[in-house]
Amino acid sequence: MDAGQEIAIQEQVPNPVHSAPLIVAVKRASNAVRDETLALRADPIADLKRFEYAKSQALLDLSRARSAVPPNAFSRELKADLAEFKEVLEENVGLLRLHMNAVSEVVQMMSRTMIDFDSDGTYQAPFPEPAR
């Protein structure tokens, strides 16, 4: 094997050291999202402000680390962490969607109640007549 082939092989094998900043950022982001998910499961009316800040900070860290690590430098550990992060995000999104749907239902019920309360009945559909 000549020196050129040896360099080509070394370039194909990702160096875990190059992935380290992104690995740290992915794990931090994953923990922030996982913490929010656990809090929502424990208390559906939990205050999410602190999680919002943690996730915003994690996104900033991810963006910075991602720009420093080219895709061909992604180590196996980083790829595994990214796959796990994707699962954590999907669970979080599903739970947040469930909560948003519940809030939407409550808002719709409150809107209907307020409209019914303010209405004098002029524009309401009449009750069907009883069958004879």
Task: Please give a quick description of this structure.
The chain has helices at residues 3-12, 16-42, 49-68, 76-118. It is mainly α and 132 residues long. The protein has one domain (8-113).
Can you walk me through this structure?
With 132 residues, the chain is an all-alpha fold. The chain has one domain (8-113). The protein has helices spanning 3-12, 16-42, 49-68, 76-118. It starts with a helix and ends in a 14-residue tail after the last helix. The mean pLDDT is 83.
What labels would you give this structure?
132 residues; elongated; single chain
The main β sheet shows up as:
none
H/E element sequence: HHHH
How much of the polypeptide forms β-strand, as a percent range? under 5%
Shape annotation: elongated
Kindly state the percentage of residues in helix: over 70%
Low-confidence region ranges: none
Query: What's the average pLDDT?
Result: 83
User: What is the SS-derived class?
Assistant: mainly alpha
Strands, total number? 0
> What is the domain total for the residues?
1
- The radius of gyration computed from the alpha-carbon positions, rounded to a whole number of angstroms, is 26 Å
Question: How many DSSP H or I helices?
Answer: 4
Distance between the termini: 98 Å
